[in-house]
Q: What sequence folds into this?
């Protein structure tokens, strides 16, 4: 709810009183629940990425095969993006409004999530199913997913699973080793 | 300069007086030059995308081969992203602050740029070098590039050309037709 307000009006354009009114709490009660507006922004920006990291580690355990694991990571990522559109848009737009440890915390979780994908690609390289790629490739491939928060329509014709199938197919083909590699 | 201010403080967090002071004009002179702050935002959001569209059409004429054309489009796109980081960040964050024809104009140019890539892929499919992909694939592939505005460092170790080489390699492999397709 606060995420939708921030997404619509910008973090600087929304006051705690407005968030309180929209949530049904008064400003005083809201301040009691959250120490500051920045805490609220931190909560918005950290919930979906901590879910991605936590579930990502579980997917690593569940899928030893790098290709199957990328498909599972892809499916889960598109599902989270689709169900957390406002939160992700706010995080992209406003992450620089977070300061100190709140900012570091969010950036560290994004780096940890990226490592889950990098490690999967590295395992595929060791197993000779993927070719070795520059480490910037994983940033590009994840960007393909995260950028979708700007065009994805939750009620669109294609489900997150459909989109994930198209994207994971592109990702796996872009990495797959070929006879001449 | 206004783009950097908007990128740093958010569109709603910057007044025309501040832009005037930073640019060396007074507020009055600045209002004389630009009708409103929204015109300034429109100018920021439309300059790089109109360059991409214009140069994109030239690249289409210059490179009839779909693979060579994708490489040229990729190289040009990463160069523009790298040289227009503040403008692109502002466009992503604040495009919803544009209203009416200003908003439509920017969105139409983005759609036109996407068509240049789609058309190139379609030509590759006709020439049997690319496989047919769902039309959402081009959104994903372009997202790979545009999302880089969030992590790209203009003074980073890898040049825009280096990054483009990694990305266009991923793109072309993800689309290339294989014996079993």
A:
């Amino acid at each position: 709810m606060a995420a939708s307000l921030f997404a619509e009006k910008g973090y600087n354009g929304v006051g705690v009183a407005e968030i309180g009114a929209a949530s049904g709490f008064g400003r005083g009660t809201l301040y009691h629940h959250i120490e500051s507006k920045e805490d609220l922004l931190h909560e918005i920006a950290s919930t979906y990425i901590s879910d991605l990291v936590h579930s990502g580690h579980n997917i690593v355990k569940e899928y030893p095969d790098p290709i199957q694991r990328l498909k599972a990571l892809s499916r889960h990522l598109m599902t989270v993006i689709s169900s957390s559109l406002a939160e992700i848009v706010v995080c992209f737009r406003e992450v620089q409004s977070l300061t100190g440890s709140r900012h570091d915390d969010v950036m560290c979780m994004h780096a940890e999530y990226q490592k889950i994908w990098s490690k999967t690609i590295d395992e595929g390289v060791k197993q000779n199913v993927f070719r070795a790629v520059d480490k910037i490739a994983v940033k590009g491939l994840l960007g393909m997913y995260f950028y979708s928060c700007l065009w994805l329509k939750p009620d669109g014709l294609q489900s997150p699973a459909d989109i994930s199938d198209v994207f994971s197919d592109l990702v796996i083909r872009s990495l797959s080793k070929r006879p001449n590699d």
User: Anything to note?
Assistant: Residues 6 and 13 of chain A are 8 Å apart (CA to CA).
